Amino acid sequence: MLALQDAAAELRRIAFDPSATLLDLLRIVFAFSALWLFVFTIAAWILRRITRDAPWLRAAIERDYERSTKEMYEQMGIKTTKEEAMVMLMNDWAPMQVIAIQHLAGSLLCVPSILGIGDPSWASSLAVLGVLSEMGWEIEHACEMVYTRLFTPGGEKKVPNGLVVIIIFHHSLTCILGLPMVLHYRELKALHWLCFNLQLGGAIIVVIEYSKFLDVSRPRDLAQFKALNLLLVLFSFWTRGLHWFYLCGEVILTWYQDKNWTFMAVGSPPILLFTLFNVLCNVIPMFKRWRKFRHVVAEYEAVPSDAPMKMRRQSTMNLEAAVAELLAEEEKDPFDRVQDFLESLERPDRKIERRATMPPKRGRRGSVNQMMKMQSVPAHKWMKED
C-alpha cells in the first residue's frame, strides 16, 4: 500500500511540474491507460447490470432497430433474429456511454485554463492532464483492438482492416503532436481549447443516444429531437469549423513566429488533413442532412389531421427515415465519412422527390463503427459477461 501511495504522489508531482521530461510524461500516459482500463471494465459492467432489460432502453433500441439497424443487417448479410439483435445492441450500449464519460472528464480538465480560473501554471497543468488522459485512453483503446484482433475468435471480422485504418486516422493527431506540444507549448491556450473541443465532441454522443429515446411521432418528443439535433449541428459547425480554423491558425502561427520549422513540417500536414476532413466530411454533410430533415418535418407537420390514412402513414414513414439518416450521419466514423465524400464526387446531386412512394434508404452499407457494436465479445473483452 505504501508503494502505491508513493507512486501516486510521484505522479501528482510530475503532473504539476512544468519541467517534466518526456519519460515523466510517458509515465502519466501509461498510468492513464491503466486507470481507464480499470474504470471502463468496472463502470461498463455496473452500467450493463443496471440497464439490463430496462424498459426505456429496450424501447429506444427497438425503435432504432426498426428505423435502420434491421435494414443494415440485411444489407450486410447478417442473419439474426430481432431478439438476438436486441440483446447484442443492449449489451454494447453501456460501454459506449462510459467512453463518453472519459471524454467528458478530459474536457473538464481544460476548463480552468480556457476560462482563466486560478493560477495559470496550475490551470495549464490540468489542461495538460486532459491531453495525456486522451493519449492514455487511445493507447488503451489500441491495445483493446489488438487483443480483439489477435486473441479472440473471429478477430479479423470484429476488427477488420477498415477499422484499423480508422484507429490510425483517429489517433494520429494526438499521438504525433500530443507529447511534443506539451513539452514545448505547455501553456498555449489554443492547445487547451483544441483538447476541450475535441474531447467534448466525444462526450456529446450522449445527446445522440438520448435522441434515440424520443418517439418523434409525439409532438413533444419531436420538438426535443429538433432542438437537440440543432444543437449538435451548431456544435459541429463551431468546434469542427469556425473555432477549429481559428485555433489551428493560432498554433501554426505560433510555430512560424518561433521559427520552429520541425513542428511546421511535422504538424502542419495532419492539421491540414483534419481540416479538410472536418469541412468536407463532417460539417457540410451534417448540415445537408439537417436541412433535409427540416424539409421532411415541415411536410409532416403540414399534413392536416383529417388527411387520408395513407397520406399520414407515408408522412410518418418519411419522417422516421429522415430521423434515421440524421442519426446515422451523426454516428458515422471517419472511414465512412471519407468514403461518402469520395462517392459524392462520382455522382451528381439528386433532388429529393417529394412524391416518393417509399422513404429514402439509410445507405448501402453499415458503418465500421456499427460493425464494432455488433461484435459478440463485449467492448472490454477482459471481463466476461455474467
Can you give a write-up of this model?
The structure is a single chain. With 386 residues, the chain is mostly helical. Helix content is 78%, strand content 0%. It has 15 helices and no strands. Helix 3 packs across helix 4 and helix 11 packs antiparallel against helix 12. The C terminus is likely disordered.
Question: How do the strands and helices of this protein lay out in sequence?
Answer:
Layout: H1 2-15, H2 22-51, H3 55-75, H4 82-108, H5 111-115, H6 120-151, H7 155-158, H8 161-184, H9 189-203, H10 205-212, H11 219-257, H12 261-302, H13 309-331, H14 334-346, H15 368-373
Shape: globular
Fraction in helix: over 70%
Major sheet summary line: none
- Beta-strand percent range: under 5%
SSE class: mainly alpha
Q: In whole angstroms, how far apart are the ends?
A: 30 Å
The radius of gyration computed from the alpha-carbon positions, rounded to a whole number of angstroms, is 23 Å
Number of helices: 15
How would you state the average pLDDT, rounded?
Answer: 80
Report the order of strands and helices: HHHHHHHHHHHHHHH
Short description:
The chain has helices at residues 2-15, 22-51, 55-75, 82-108, 111-115, 120-151, 155-158, 161-184, 189-203, 205-212, 219-257, 261-302, 309-331, 334-346, 368-373. It is mainly α and 386 residues long.
Annotation keywords:
15 helices; disordered C terminus; 386 residues; mainly alpha
